[in-house]
Every structure is written in C-alpha cells, then in structure tokens.
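Quick one, probably user error.
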C-alpha cells in the first residue's frame, strides 16, 4: 500500500517545524530531508514562496520513501556545495545527499520539483 501526504504552504521559517510536526509518524531522516528541501526554497527563492511538499511513503515499489518539494521557479536549481567547517550555510543539500539513496530535480515550464528517496 502506498500512502501520500501532501501539504501546500508558504516557505517560511515557521513552516519548517510545522512540517516536522505533520511528519512525526515518519523517521528522523524523512523529517530532516523534507525540512532541508523546504529551507532551500526559503534561502534561494525567498520567504513566502508557495510550495507543495509531498511525502510518498513506505510502500513505494523500491521500498523507499520519496520526498518532493515543488516551487514556482524552474530556473533556480539546487547545487551541491562542499561547505567548510566555518561556512554558515551550504550544508542542506549535502545532508540530503548523505541521507538519501538518490535525489534529483524535475523541471517544468513554470515549476521545479526537488526530490529525494530514502530507503525504508
């Protein structure tokens, strides 16, 4: 059985803990990756950007949980950085990369979806 949770929200600092609360039934890695992808929208597109967060759970056909964050800017693509110990930012996507089995971006003419999959 495949379960999907979907949330339409504005990317704000308050949205991150709210999202973690809504995902409390999921493990730490799912909550962390979802909030890191949400935080990327805040950092790179700005506070108040409308987003859709989807968590397609537990029984995906490959035994993975998929997290998708869709925003309205197809041009602002995420970049995996190598943050140093003194950098104040740049670790979010590195965390997703370390925890996820795979991740990527799907672009449309008026949106993009950044996604990751974590093994159950």
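Nope, works fine. Designed sequence:
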């Amino acid at each position: 059985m495949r379960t999907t949770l979907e949330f339409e929200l504005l990317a704000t600092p308050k949205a991150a803990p709210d999202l973690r609360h809504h995902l409390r039934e999921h493990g730490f890695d799912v909550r962390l990756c979802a909030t890191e992808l949400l935080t990327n929208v805040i950092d790179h597109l700005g506070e108040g950007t409308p987003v859709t967060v989807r968590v397609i759970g537990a029984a995906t056909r490959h035994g993975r949980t998929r997290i998708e964050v869709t925003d309205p800017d197809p041009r602002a693509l995420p970049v995996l950085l190598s943050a140093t110990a003194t950098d104040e930012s740049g670790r979010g996507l590195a965390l997703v990369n370390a925890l996820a089995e795979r991740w990527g971006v799907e672009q449309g003419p008026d949106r993009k979806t950044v996604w990751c999959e974590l093994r159950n």
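The mean pLDDT is 89.
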